[in-house]
Design goal:
Number of helices: 0
Strand order of the largest sheet: 1-2-31-30-29
Radius of gyration: 20 Å
CATH architecture: 6 Propeller
Helix content: under 10%
Shape: globular
Number of strands: 31
Distance between the termini: 21 Å
């Protein structure tokens, strides 16, 4: 479907990139509602992409070896330990040698305490193989995050970092924990507690990225509406005290939207601040810059923002809106990535612009070529409106809790949950966007 959308955005005075869109397509074409989407690109070959989805349907992976022109969709994630099932929250990653990894939440049919699992394969044409359980305890583990150290000059090349939230059942207490592996998941380090919170300070949605020299950056939100960041200079063994870098105008980390509400059903699936950390590892003018992408609600409308930070996590100015806020539209579930070839920063999100209401959405993206200071006009990755608020929609996940984008080799590949008319429920769609 190359050329489905021609030039999709224009810019003023040439200050920001012009975006083109191609290869829009349904990558899943599977029964059931897909949700919880994520995607990664191989650093050794930007044509190799691996995505995944969860939700109530069986977890699926999506593989492309031609830069997103074609995709292979499969429910090929094996059971992990003792027949335990992969359930959801998948996060893919690829190391510098092309080895692929997929972290997720797993559970046994006899337990109510999900735990983190990981599978790996040597490349896109190989089968996924289970690894050993990263963190073994009796706590409930949720929303994993996976990162691989591909950073220049790192003393830990190829190290896997896997972490997330652990909850004590029946207690308003959560801890963000982290472990690492230097042998592709065969052995894991003792878990480290990054931060802990009770009641309104519970942390969730851990995000990780690795910078030059192997510096590990971590971020998260707290349910009372702050975004925190911290870094480790010793490969994840210890972390410096965290910094509160954003206090959300929403004064909470989760809220509801009309686009996530099913008429007549009463079910609501809120949106969250969706923090994601990314870092510029190029040798360009913004080398070492850290980006924190997230969403916030101001004046009753939701919009994506990016906070720029120095390598030692000092904010550079105020958060920048990726698109000017509008009283007529919500933009939500942002995903951010940095193209390590060009240094361009990409931010993709659902937008209700042009739908005539705040119920119909299209997935869209913007790019920045000046270190996040300004952003291109928005390009629509989805050519048609989607609406999960119909009565036959996936009322359990709505638009899927979070989406993904992988930027590599001068292109961005968003991956999102789409429920456009004629689709088989909520399916996973992709497109290829270029900036010039």
């Amino acid at each position: 479907m190359r050329g489905l959308l021609a030039l999709a955005a224009v810019t003023a005075a040439g200050a920001s990139p012009v975006i083109s869109v191609a290869d829009e397509q349904n990558a899943s074409r599977a029964p059931g509602d897909q949700a919880e989407v994520a995607i990664a690109a191989a650093p050794n070959d930007p044509n190799v992409l691996v995505g995944a989805s969860g939700g109530l349907a069986r977890m699926r992976t999506y593989t492309s070896t031609d830069g997103g022109t074609t995709w292979r969709s499969a429910a090929d994630v094996p059971d992990t330990l003792a027949g335990d099932l992969p359930l959801g929250d998948p996060v893919p990653a690829v190391d510098a040698a092309g080895h692929e990894y997929l972290a997720f939440v797993a559970a046994s049919p006899t337990t109510t305490e999900p735990y983190f699992g990981l599978v790996t394969r040597d490349g896109p044409d190989d089968e996924w193989q289970p690894t050993n359980r990263p963190i073994v305890d009796e706590r409930l583990q949720d929303k994993p995050m996976l990162a691989v150290d591909n950073a220049p000059g790192s003393p830990h090349p190829g190290r896997l970092y896997l972490g997330g939230a652990e909850f004590r059942p029946g207690r308003p207490l959560a801890t963000l924990v982290l472990t690492h592996s230097d042998d592709r998941g065969v052995t894991w380090s003792a878990p480290v507690a990054i931060t802990t919170g009770r009641a309104q300070t519970i942390p969730q949605f851990l995000t990780l990225t690795v910078g030059p020299g192997g510096v590990l950056y971590a971020g998260w939100f707290r349910v009372n509406g702050t975004l925190d960041v911290a870094r480790s200079l010793d490969g994840g063994e210890t972390f410096a005290p965290f910094r509160v870098v954003v206090r959300l105008a929403a004064r909470a980390a989760a809220w509801t939207l009309p686009a996530q509400t099913v008429p007549g059903r009463g079910e609501r699936r809120g949106v969250t601040a969706t923090p994601l950390l990314r870092l510029d590892t190029t040798d360009g003018p913004y080398a070492g810059r850290v980006y924190l992408g997230y969403e916030d609600r101001r004046n009753g409308r939701t919009n994506p923002y990016v906070l720029r930070l120095t390598p030692d996590l000092r904010p550079i100015g105020r958060p920048v809106p990726v698109v000017a806020a509008s009283r007529a539209a919500d933009r939500f579930f942002p995903a951010i990535d940095v193209d390590e070839t060009t240094g361009d920063v990409w931010d993709c999100f659902y937008a209700t612009d042009g739908g005539g209401d705040r119920l119909h959405v299209r997935y869209a993206c913007a790019a920045s070529s000046d270190g996040g200071a300004s952003w291109s006009h928005v390009a629509r990755g989805a050519s048609r409106f989607s609406r999960v608020t119909r009565r036959t929609a996936d009322i359990s996940f709505g638009y899927g809790d979070y989406e993904g984008v992988a930027a590599a080799g001068g292109a961005a590949h968003p991956m999102w949950t789409d429920a456009r008319p004629g689709s088989n429920g909520s399916e996973v769609w992709t497109a290829t966007l270029g900036a010039r």
